[in-house]
From TrEMBL:
It comes from Bacteroides xylanisolvens. It comes from the Bacteria. This is DUF4304 domain-containing protein.
């Protein structure tokens, strides 16, 4: 089989237990999609591969994504300087698990079966609980207020859910989440400096967090 055919075959085999959970495959099995009970969220499992595949090495990278239909609309209406696709959260399965790195699995030869089993196990154990949490909006908001995006002991915090918290949570909850990230990431001084620069309409440098710091400042979230 060609590397592409092996990859697609693997995607569809991995999909089997998740179809039973309500996920629907698309893009030849490269995406598994499930709509939340309230029809507002979309839970997705994506499988990526590599342009460097060969008969000896066929890579597969599993990722998860949560997007929100009404959040996308709100972000656009408010002209907020953040993603406009309604993104709530995304991550690679490696960063949700003890692997703790961006990892690919090999599907070539004898690696095929154990790689599929490992990926299914990881997704069931570490991705599905996150999807389940977001099925209950209030539970998700309460969790993020207290723990940020640390959905388990292996997951590092991020500010990806800040637009979601501002849209559906109370301002105080969004503020607590913002400060949870600041303290867990030890970036308080950098963010305080950024706030001071924003007061003067200066350019800030907070790396990947730039748009979220600007959003927090525009929404008058306090740094504690």
């Amino acid at each position: 089989m060609k590397p592409r055919d092996i990859f697609i075959k693997a995607c569809n085999e991995i999909a089997i237990p998740f179809i039973a959970m309500g996920f629907k495959p698309s893009k030849n099995g490269q995406c598994l999609k499930k709509i939340s009970k309230d029809k507002n969220l979309t839970f997705e499992i994506w499988f990526r591969s590599s342009v460097y595949n060969s008969s000896c090495n066929v890579a597969i990278y599993p990722l998860i994504t949560i997007t929100c239909k009404n959040l996308k609309k709100w972000v656009q209406e408010e002209n907020l300087n953040v993603n406009d696709d309604g993104l709530v959260y995304h991550n690679h399965i490696g960063y949700l698990s003890p692997i703790n790195q961006y990892q690919s699995w090999d599907l070539a030869g004898l690696s095929y079966a154990p790689s599929i089993k490992t990926i299914i196990d990881l997704l069931e154990k570490y991705a599905c609980p996150i999807f389940d949490l977001f099925e209950n909006r209030q539970m998700a908001i309460d969790f993020i207020t207290q723990h940020g995006c640390c959905f388990n002991q292996y997951t590092k915090d991020s500010l990806l859910a800040l637009p979601y918290m501002l849209r559906y949570g109370e301002k105080e909850q969004a503020e607590n989440y913002f400060n949870h990230y600041i303290h867990s990431s030890k970036c308080r001084n950098r963010f305080v400096k950024a706030y001071s620069q924003l007061e003067k309409n200066d350019v800030i440098d907070c790396g990947l967090d730039n748009r979220f710091v600007i959003l927090a400042y525009s929404q008058k979230l306090k740094i504690k």
